[in-house]
Design goal:
The protein is mainly beta. It folds into 3 domains: about 160 residues, Immunoglobulin-like, CATH 2.60.40; about 110 residues, Sandwich (Immunoglobulin-like); about 130 residues, Sandwich (Immunoglobulin-like). It contains 3 helices and 31 strands. Strands 1, 3, 5, 7, 11 and 12 form a 6-stranded mixed β-sheet that branches. Strands 21, 22, 23, 25, 27 and 28 form a 6-stranded mixed β-sheet that branches. The longest helix is centred in the first third of the chain and has 18 residues. It starts with a helix and ends in a 6-residue tail after the last strand.
Length: about 425
Amino acid sequence: MRRYGFFFLFVFCFNLAYCQMELFDIQLENKVYADGIASVQLKLSAEQLSTSVGVLGVDTFHISFDDLELENRHLKYTFIHCTHDWKWSQMNPIEYIEGFMEDDITTYDHSFNTIEPYIHYQAYFPNENISFTKSGNYVLFVYDDTPDNPILTHRFMVLEPVPARIACDVHSAIDVNKKYTHQDVDFLVFPGAYRVRNPQRTIHATIQQNDRWDNAKYGLTYYSGDVEELHFDYTDGRNTFPGGAEFRTFDLTTLRSNADHIVGISYVNRHTHAYVLQDEARPFAAYESRGNMNGRCLYYNRDLRNDFSEDYVFTHFTLKSSFPFTEGDVYVFGELTDWQLQEDAKLRYNKEFDFWETELFLKQGVYNYQYVYVPHGSDVIDATYIEGSHFQTNNIYNIYVYFQEEGTSYDRLIGFQSCSIADRR
């Protein structure tokens, strides 16, 4: 009897803390709250280039990150269920979490033979201690001992075991003014076993370009068709994205010599510095095709094959431009900045050499990146101002389809599909 009493007391205390999370300024997005936390990745299993979408009851997720501060932490994590547009769900945690309401991160390792020491943390979930029972959008919340000491939040998605089928097509925009610079994403949803009586109200779709959330199209409702074949092929631009340009790349997998797009490596004041080949602004350049990882990064050290041997490097970026950036700011952008506008990634003008520059403290690996522009007084990211925009660009579009069944209070993720314009070639 005392065991059950303790269990209900624990649930009550956890729910009280959970209800206070909004007061702790927890954001339902990819965000780091503690100093020294770097290289956060949440993927399927331990595959660095996999997605953050897994099947309910089938797939396992893997969270990993480094602590450069070497703090003595008691790390825990829990899950926050969200609506289709990433707002707080109406559900109580006990409605979607099975097992304990939180779990400890007990797997950690110290870096091996690196100049910059760090502790590497990782965890797999769901597991025998904690799992989820509902599909939909989730935020992983990691904290130090109690929720009022947040470490990080990171989004992931859980798909229904029997998903709806999605057929998609990426092509140049039908708007003649955007035909050569933008892409339209059309798709059909076949609900199959899901009984959709009122699709206009109960079905919502999201289109995500690469792994960006800042320019995702949320809350799309079906345009035409019937309950067995829902059409999402708009003519008003709701499914239109700037094509942008292929991502730039550089290789930091070795520090013994200059690899791809690295022009110099030095050791100064007990730190390693690497210099990326100077970039040029290219808003009007012709489209250039190259294979890339669509903005992602792959951590790897090819000189030392031991686990946790990747070192951290002060990586220097320089950008040459024939036009000034007087009315906005320029940032290095991609998974290397967690798809966020980071202050360290903002470029500064070097008057002596007439270029823009910044440096980031990055883990060894292969990186994709772009330069993005943000006008003063705005938070809208423009990836075309410096990079240009082309309809041929091989962007990856992720399509998510949500269904809030009548009589329920949450958005189930019933469909997921990735596609690109390359699928038409």
